[in-house]
Design a protein that fits this description.
This is RNase H type-1 domain-containing protein. GO terms for molecular function: nucleic acid binding; RNA-DNA hybrid ribonuclease activity. The protein has about 110 residues and is an alpha+beta fold. It contains 2 helices and 4 strands; from the N terminus they run H-E-E-E-H-E. The chain has a single domain, classed as Ribonuclease H-like superfamily/Ribonuclease H (Nucleotidyltransferase, domain 5). About 30% of the residues lie in helices and about 25% in strands.
Length: about 110
């Protein structure tokens, strides 16, 4: 199951890199917060993009139900096409980290601002 998501994200990033559309629309969805179950894990990811240098830094943090940090991960990338690509790559890193940790179900949360 994780490989299917990984392959989809990689194809999606490639498609977006090739896309020449400058303006994207976004839809906000309000969700009500609820605490994690003891066996759940949550991945938060975020990214920063330096437009002139086309470089980025992204981070993923894995937390348990007690909000303890289990694993922090930071990724530096060069030659990145857009802020969207950076956020998509950070999301992929969250999926891969959950897979590496051996979890079948992971809650993933990011905050794309554009």
């Amino acid at each position: 199951m994780g490989y299917g998501i990984e392959a989809w994200v990689i194809r999606y990033i490639k498609e977006m890199d090739e896309c020449k559309i400058k303006k994207l629309t976004k839809e906000s969805v309000n969700m009500e917060w609820c605490p994690l179950n003891e066996s759940d894990i949550k991945m938060n990811f975020d990214a920063a993009f330096d437009v002139p240098q086309a470089k980025s830094i992204s981070a993923v943090v894995a937390r348990n139900a007690s909000r303890e940090i289990l694993v922090p991960k930071m990724i530096a990338l060069g030659e990145v096409a857009s802020p969207f690509t950076v956020e998509a790559h950070a999301c992929l890193q969250a999926v891969l980290l959950g897979k590496q940790m051996g979890y079948a179900l992971v809650i993933i949360e990011g905050d794309m601002h554009q």
